[in-house]
Write a structure and sequence with these properties.
By secondary structure, this protein is an alpha/beta fold. It has eight helices and six strands; from the N terminus they run ααβααβααβαββαβ. The termini are far apart. The chain binds zinc ion.
Length: 233
């Protein structure tokens, strides 16, 4: 027979808790965060962040937009999403990114992209993790913004070693010939979507490949900026 204590313990397991402080959410808390943690999220101003990513060679892509800055709170969320097996977190991060993107496009007056392409992983890494967090985010963001998502339109051919341990210059060098675009994108505006942006090398390399297939603009959408030499792959 199940005791009252056991029943309440089971209910507690089912109750949703805040992704950051782990306190039980109230009925009025929406989107997976309590009021305090939601207010503490390290949001970025709704502007292009590409200026942060200098490189000696050409940097491909147009506007780069991110919802959150590098901060222990955003680091915590990305760690849960990628390395602690919590793909369902994408459902609660997507509305935050979509809201930021809406502000970015309204303020800049730039046209919305026609198509979202999630940043791909290699098949080996995908099999190890069991999901591609960028594709999960893209699906939710695409639904909120009513923009179609092209799954599998971009392939990642190599991992080129453990990227998070590469220094900045090596990381740019390693990105040569990493991506392959499987479709023609003539006259289309594309948004590349990833969970994090570290050195900008991956986004630039993918944008170059997409431009070669005829895209007119390639914007980058990421949930958070991160710093080089952190675990981000
Ligand atoms: Zn909280």
């Amino acid at each position: 027979m199940v005791s009252i204590r056991q029943s309440f313990a089971k209910l507690g397991q089912l109750a949703k808790v805040c992704w950051l402080c782990q306190q039980p959410l109230r009925l009025t808390d929406v989107g997976g965060f309590c009021d305090y943690c939601r207010a503490d999220l390290p949001r970025l101003p709704p502007r292009c962040q590409k200026w942060r990513y200098g490189h000696r060679g050409p940097v491909f892509g147009d506007a780069w937009y991110a919802a959150c800055a590098w901060h222990p709170l955003s680091q915590n969320l990305i760690r849960q999403l990628k390395f602690q097996g919590r793909p369902e977190l994408a459902y609660d991060l997507a509305p935050l990114l979509a809201a930021q993107l809406t502000k970015c496009y309204q303020l800049s007056g730039r046209p919305w992209p026609d198509l979202i392409m999630p940043m791909p992983m290699t098949r080996k890494r995908w099999q190890l993790r069991g999901y591609n967090q960028a594709a999960l985010l893209a699906k939710q963001v695409g639904q909120i913004l009513t923009i179609p998502v092209a799954y599998g339109g971009l392939r990642r051919l190599h991992d080129r070693g453990q990227q998070h341990r590469s220094n900045r210059a090596l990381r740019w060098q390693n990105m040569q010939q990493v991506f392959h675009c499987t479709r023609t994108l003539k006259q289309q505006r594309i948004a590349l979507l990833d969970d994090v942006l570290t050195t900008g090398a991956s986004v630039s390399a993918a944008a170059q490949v997409i431009q070669h297939r005829g895209a007119t603009t390639v914007d980058a959408w990421v949930f958070a900026l991160t710093e080089a030499n952190t675990q981000s792959d």
